[in-house]
Write a structure and sequence with these properties.
alpha/beta; TIM Barrel; eight-stranded parallel beta barrel; about 35% helix; about 15% strand; globular
Length: about 270
């Protein structure tokens, strides 16, 4: 069965961030992910993981000025030094937290920018990051994100992500396959799971209901079926990654909302 990781940026929002680790463990999660660790000292996060028997399986490299609308630096010409400094910081956190995956957000394409220049910058930054991470045994992930939630995001289709990973050729550069984003942009999710999981290029999966990004059992996608596809393909090809629960509870951030909405998980943990 898929292994589920709680996304602490979206789940358990009725708690202060450092208290969300305990809440996730109490609900039977053994792994967590979140957007960014940088508001906290690595030691504080490490203590939360150790105290509650949790694995850190994913977080994002610094995205630039998030509050100003930046969503990554990797494709932006002229920001290479900032990208490298941010990734070095992410790698320090990854080593401290024993986290094997760092997601590098592509960024928003500037108006009027030449696509070829953005692509060249993106490729060069990813190749550099993968080389830096290889010595630490860490994977670098790229994620196609839908242009409804994030207009102008540079990477938004699975095929483009996999082509780029193949072109760069670094064994630790992989794709973060978010089924929510894929359904919005492309659909045909089950076929894509069957096609891409056996390639070895998928480093992580994320889920949410479509279209409201609530629990997986809320919306148009049959996740019970997709979990079965993941199970079946994994058994055939040996994929053993995590499935991140990156959704907003339908009940909002009221006390117990996340826990109340976990019925979709059934016996799956």
């Amino acid at each position: 069965m898929p292994r589920f990781a709680a996304n602490l940026s979206m789940l358990y929002n009725e708690h202060a961030f450092l208290d969300r680790f305990a809440a996730a463990a109490a609900d039977g999660f053994s792994a967590v992910e979140y957007l960014f660790p940088y508001a906290f000292e690595a030691q504080a996060l490490q203590s939360c993981l150790q105290d509650h028997g949790l694995q850190q399986v994913l977080f994002n490299a610094p995205p630039g000025d998030w509050d100003a609308g930046e969503r990554g630096l990797a494709c932006l010409p002229g920001r290479e030094a900032e990208f490298r400094a941010g990734f070095a910081r992410a790698l320090d956190y990854a080593q401290a937290l024993a986290c094997p995956r760092i997601h590098v957000m592509a960024g928003i394409a500037p108006t009027g920018a030449e696509p070829a220049a953005l692509q060249a910058t993106y490729s060069a930054n990813l190749a550099w990051a993968a080389d830096q991470a290889s010595g630490a045994g860490c994977d670098v992930l790229i994620e196609p994100i839908n242009t409804r939630d994030m207009p102008g995001f540079f990477l938004h289709h699975q095929a483009a992500a996999h082509t780029l990973v193949q072109e760069i050729g670094a064994p630790n550069l992989k794709v973060q396959f978010d089924l929510y984003h894929c359904q919005i942009m492309e659909g045909d999710v089950a076929t894509k799971l069957r096609h891409y999981l056996p390639t070895g290029r998928v480093g992580h999966i994320q889920i949410a209901g479509v279209p409201e990004r609530h629990e997986p059992n809320v919306g148009e996608v049959n996740y019970d079926y997709l979990f079965g596809v993941i199970d079946a393909v994994s058994a055939q090809c040996g994929w053993n990654g995590w499935v991140g629960c990156e959704y907003r509870p339908a009940l909002g951030a009221v006390a117990g909302a996340t826990t109340a909405g976990l019925g979709w998980r059934g016996a799956r943990r």
